[in-house]
Design goal:
Layout lengths: L1 E4 L3 H13 L4 E4 L4 H9 L4 E3 L8 H14 L3 E6 L5 H7 L3 H17 L5 E6 L3 H14 L5 E2 L7 H17 L5 E2 L7 H14 L8 E4 L10 H12 L7 E5 L5 H7 L2 E5 L3 E6 L2 E7 H16 L1
Parallel strand pairs: 1-2, 2-3, 3-4, 4-5, 6-7, 8-9, 9-10
Antiparallel strand pairs: 10-11, 11-12
Bound molecules: iron/sulfur cluster (SF4).
């Protein structure tokens, strides 16, 4: 699913062109201007992110709701702590409670118009507040929730914040869709999403590598090897598990759980396939031998 910001009428009119060239759902992110929402809907958008409380008069909200009903497309209410209503801010500050009350206001506007095809996001850049807000909201509504930590930062710290915020909630059964926000190439956002889902065992896609942190027992260049294996695994789609372990103390135990594994020794490595040692090879042969075995089970 891809979301595009719709800033003006030209952007709204471009949606039809985009839709013709993709096969995945497209979401229009619209602030305030209901005419942009109506045009996006006419152009075949699959979901509209708009806050009904910000559109203006009831007739305008109704026009958007009617258009969504007619096309059977959902509306996502997107509450962001940076743009809460002033009265809520005055009373509760920029808190999870204020954000939840704001979301509920928008929900009630849609429900009054008998519109229930709703998703809600309630984003904070602060992870504990984000978690608390979604937990509170999940107790109040049964609509699907779209998870996200907003303005999370650059790739490294942002991925950690997103993984903790989104991951905690998913583990509790909260959340239907998610968006990882990073100040980085959006492709990295997708990679982090998949990593979160895989870490929680919610989806398996592509290979998983387990590797040990190295210690005084490591007698091969394990970090170099693990990085090379990881790079090679990016080319593979099958959900195989590969273990890259530094020694025979913990190594074989972990490696045996994997489809393919190596446990390092003194300048050598024992290659495991489906729990059995198939051969021991010198250090410079570990990578090609591992890749050879990986190729055999993924072809
Ligand atoms: Fe150390 Fe062996 Fe554990 Fe790696 S697997 S951290 S080398 S004990």
């Amino acid at each position: 699913m891809v979301r595009v910001a719709v800033l003006d009428m030209a952007a709204a009119k471009a949606i039809g062109q985009i839709k013709k060239q993709i096969h995945i759902p497209l979401v229009a992110d619209i602030h305030f201007d209901y005419q942009l929402a109506l045009e996006a809907i006419r152009q075949g958008i699959d979901k509209v992110r708009i806050n009904p409380g910000n559109i203006g008069s009831e007739e305008k909200v109704k026009a958007v709701v009617d258009a969504c009903k007619q096309k059977k497309i959902p509306i996502r209410i997107g509450v962001n702590v940076g743009s809460l209503e002033q009265d809520l801010l005055n009373k509760y500050g920029a808190t999870p409670k204020a954000a939840v009350l704001s979301a509920l206001r928008h929900v009630r506007i849609l429900e009054k118009l008998n519109f229930k095809d709703i998703l809600i996001s309630i984003k904070f850049s602060n992870v504990p507040q984000m978690i608390e807000a979604y937990r509170m909201l999940a107790k109040k509504v049964s609509y699907p929730l779209h998870l996200g930590v907003t303005e999370a930062g650059t790739a490294f710290m942002g991925s950690i914040k997103n993984a903790i915020g989104i991951g905690t909630l998913l583990q509790e059964g909260i959340g239907a869709t998610m968006r990882v926000s990073l100040t980085a190439d959006p492709i990295e956002e997708i990679a982090t999403c998949w990593a979160i889902l895989r870490a929680l065992d919610l989806r398996r896609r592509g290979p998983e590598m387990i590797s040990c942190p190295t210690c005084g027992r490591t007698q091969i260049d394990l970090i170099g090897l693990a990085n090379k294996v990881e790079k090679e695994l990016k080319k593979i789609k099958q959900p195989i598990k590969v273990a890259v372990m530094g020694c025979v103390v913990n190594g074989p135990g972990e490696a045996r759980e994997a489809d393919i594994g190596v446990a390092g020794g003194k300048g050598m490595g024992a290659i495991f396939v489906k729990g059995k040692v198939v051969r021991s090879v010198p250090e410079n042969k570990i990578l090609p031998e591992l890749l050879k075995e990986i190729k055999k089970i993924t072809k």
